Amino acid sequence: MRDDLERLLERLVHASVLERLVISLAALVAAILVGGVLVFVSGAFASCRAGLDIAGVTFCYNPMQVYYELFLGSLGHPLEGGWSPMNYSLATTLRQTTLLIFAGLSVAVAFRAGLFNIGTQGQLVVGGLVTAVTVLFAAPYLPGGFVGTVLLVPLGVLAGALGGGFYGAIPGALKAYADANEVITTIMLNFIATGVTATLLSRWFQDPNSANPQTRAVPEYAEIPTLPGVGFSGRMDFSLLALGFAVALMIAIAWLLARTTFGYELRTTGIQPEAAAYGGVDEKRMTVASMTLSGALGGVAGAFWVLMQHGRWLENVPDLGFDGIAVSILAGNNPLGVGAAAFLFGVLDSGSSSINTSTDVPPELVGVLSGLLILFVAMPEFFRMIGRRFVDTDAAPARAAGGGADE
């Protein structure tokens, strides 16, 4: 039994990209079948006026309709007449995808360095507040209009990256110089980030004209602009420019990890820290640098949450950072895979809303259905990550001098 398990883990570890894709698709099909059965059976315990009668039992929920709304409702029902690619449902899906790309990259960078950054949520919270405060402070001193957009948007994103990077460097330094477990420190720093930002908001940054815990709105020209003529409406809180930046950053991180000395040292430290140290890599410096970069990416997620979606910082920050953990695992910690995983999460989030508005299926069951899909698709990659710690991956340790892609 143990030998069979070891062989299975070794097969997963050494699986090619095509094989991993086939496994993920098979897992998705299995999740759809299991979820469909669950939805259908749950309908027998619900009350409805019309349904499918079998042996005197009325089944109220139609799994086909549920999956139709989940996957096509998130795109705005493209098979129906009058469909426009600039619809609100697709904008919601792509907006969530954009934010989760940043969060997923944040977690993936730390994982590739052998670190478990559970604190992306806190780094996102801090980065978002720093972004809002920086833009609000700088706006009166800068011109408005197009010039203001060109100056304030990059400034806000940079401020978010610096805020998140600083907050990510804290657990990195604790890990490097005090041997503190980064899982525990990052989890605790999530709570600290929530409490500290709420206190700062209530004392200095609260919008005096609102009873809701939020900052003042940044100037409209300081928000992420939409593309005139070919972009989504500004009322949809989504910009193709933001998605384009997320994809470009995703490619840049993949290149950084695969084609630079820094990326080679980061990956080697994560795979074989002893060999990396023998090759001249400063493990402590790399730990702090990796967590700083990871936190900066989380801060960028917070910056775009402020500048694209809300135009202000709100105390009630969604759990994008925690979703980023699942996105990264689903992508196998591969930066280029983060985009596809984030899109799946965006579809599930937007499609769940479509199910709630178009069917009588309760939200709790929709949440279970989405969870099953994520669990089934992510588990093969999760076991592959576990297997990498017990199976010889034949990594070739050498002094850092660049290096190619390892997956």
Structural write-up:
Keywords: Cell membrane, Membrane, Transmembrane, Transmembrane helix. It comes from Natronococcus jeotgali DSM 18795. Its main location: membrane. With 407 residues, this protein is mostly helical. A two-stranded antiparallel sheet has the order 1-2. The protein has one domain: ABC transporter involved in vitamin B12 uptake, BtuC (Orthogonal Bundle), CATH 1.10.3470. Helices cover 68% and strands 1% of the residues. The C terminus is likely disordered.
Q: How would you sum up the global shape?
A: globular
The spatial strand order of the largest sheet comes to: 1-2
- The number of domains is 1
* CATH architect. name: Orthogonal Bundle
- Mean pLDDT, rounded to whole units? 86
Return the string of H and E elements.
Answer: HHEEHHHHHHHHHHHH
Q: Low-confidence parts, pLDDT < 50 over ≥5 residues? A: 394-407
Strand content: under 5%
Kindly report the CATH topology.
ABC transporter involved in vitamin B12 uptake, BtuC
What is the CATH class designation?
Mainly Alpha
Helicity range: 55-70%
Give me the secondary-structure category: mainly alpha
Q: Helical region count? A: 14
Rg estimate, integer Å: 23 Å
How is the biggest beta sheet arranged?
2 strands, antiparallel
Kindly report how far apart the N and C termini lie. Answer: 29 Å
Beta strand count: 2
Oligomer: single chain
